[in-house]
Design goal:
The chain has 183 residues and is mostly beta strands. Helix content is 7%, strand content 43%. It has a 6-stranded antiparallel beta barrel.
Amino acid sequence: IDKPDNRYISESKIDKTISAKVILNSINKSKNIIVINKGELNGITKEMGVISSKGVVGIIKNITDNYSSIVSLLNTDLKINAILKNSSTIGSISWNGLDPRIVQLNDIPLSSSIKVGDTIVTGGMSFYFPKGIPIGRIEDYNNTSLEGYYSIDVSIFSDFSSLSNIYILHRTDDDEIKFLLNE
C-alpha cells in the first residue's frame, strides 16, 4: 500500500492519518462523491481533509457510524486554497466538470511568473489541509484574460479513476481554529 509522503504531514499539526478503503467513487458527474469504509466510530469527523499517496482527494462531507462521504476534488462545488510551489503565489483550485484528470487554478495574476510543469500544492490557508500537500502540475495556461488573471489547467497527481486507499488527516488544532472562525 502506498502511504502518503510524511514530509508534508510532519510539518503541520497533523496528529495522525486514518487509512480507509474507497467503496464507491464517481468521476463522470459534475458533483462527484466518494464513499469510504470508515466513519464516526473510527474517529472521522466532518470537514477533515482527505489525501491519497499522490496528493489531495477531497473533504469529508457526511459521516455515519461506519462510513463517510467525501466531496471529491472532482466536484464543481469544491474550492481548495493552493499555491505555486516555487513562488508561493496564492490561488484556488476548482474543477470545471469536464476532464477528470484536469482541474483549474484560479486567481493567479498575470504579473506572476508561471510555466508548464510548475507544481501546485495546498496553500495551508484552511483547516482542511496543511501547506504543501501536492495537487498537480501546470499542464497549460492562457494569459489573454481581460480580468488580469491567468486561465490555468492543472494535471492532478491523484488518479481518481483508480482510487482505492486513501488517508484522512486528523489535525490536532481543528477545535482551536474552528473556535476562532465561529467567534
